[in-house]
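mind reviewing this fold:
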Amino acid sequence: MKSFATFGNELYTGERSYPFVAKRKTWFTITGVLIALSVLIPILVGGFNFGIEFKGGSQFTISNVSNTSPAIGQSAVAKAVPGADAIVTNLVGNTMQVQTNMLSDKDTVTVADALQTAYGVTVKDVTSTFVGPSWGADVSRQAIIGFIVFVLLATVLMALYFRTWRMSVAAVIGLLVVMIVTAGVYGASQFEVSPSAIIGFLTILSYSLYDTVVVFDKIRENTADITSSTRRTFGEEVNLAINQTLVRSINTMMVAVLPVGSILFIGSLLLGAGTLQDLSLALFIGIIVSTFSTVFVAAPMYAWLRQNEPALVKQAKKVQARRAAETVAA
């Protein structure tokens, strides 16, 4: 069995090649289906599960508990204030967090007493706060502004660096695919949308752009003298660049996704550190989708955007003529 290093070397030299550009219609169709599902599934399951920071409510923190079962808190709230929805999370160690819909002052005191009794702690161990929805609205607004500014700056800087607006367009389309699919999976899983999740979404933008720039830089290197070359067509050079950077993209993804996966599956699901779920899930999905988007969407999209340029059409004919002449000579 060939080693991974040999596999990478064959991809780099062109001895082994996968038709990413030639089958772009297939990849675009699959991407379109993923986008459609990412929009429809969250709608079918009732929309996103926004946290208390976005919809407002009461929050209780119980320290020094001996039993970290969420069922204890849920039962205590249900008995104290019938009809109140309670989300109980083990923050860390022996500290529990209970979030409910907006409660009156009287109900807040009642729930605090019930939680104190249920978990067997002292009065000092139970604290309550009220979170207004305006704070979450501010966070959302700032996140949207940050996203728009990031996309605009990335578009301009990539156009200046690569000296073509088509690379910027392809990269931005790849970013949008990452955001939509990641948000769709997040919504389908019904994980709570919190400020940490928003930070995770913004973080994967940088990772996605980094991965795209690496591949695009190799494309620029391969196509620097494309108009005077009869070795390969523009699409074939782009495809070669994707194959040459494929191992690097996979390695980068694995190095990034393994620690995030450890946080998600070990830290949050096994150890019960619930506050890590929202951030780690957004990063975990985003990193994987970013690699897919760069290889199957952004790079083939760039080749498609430029395939009908007169100079490249003329160059493709020269390549075909050379190959036809070699075939006749052989």
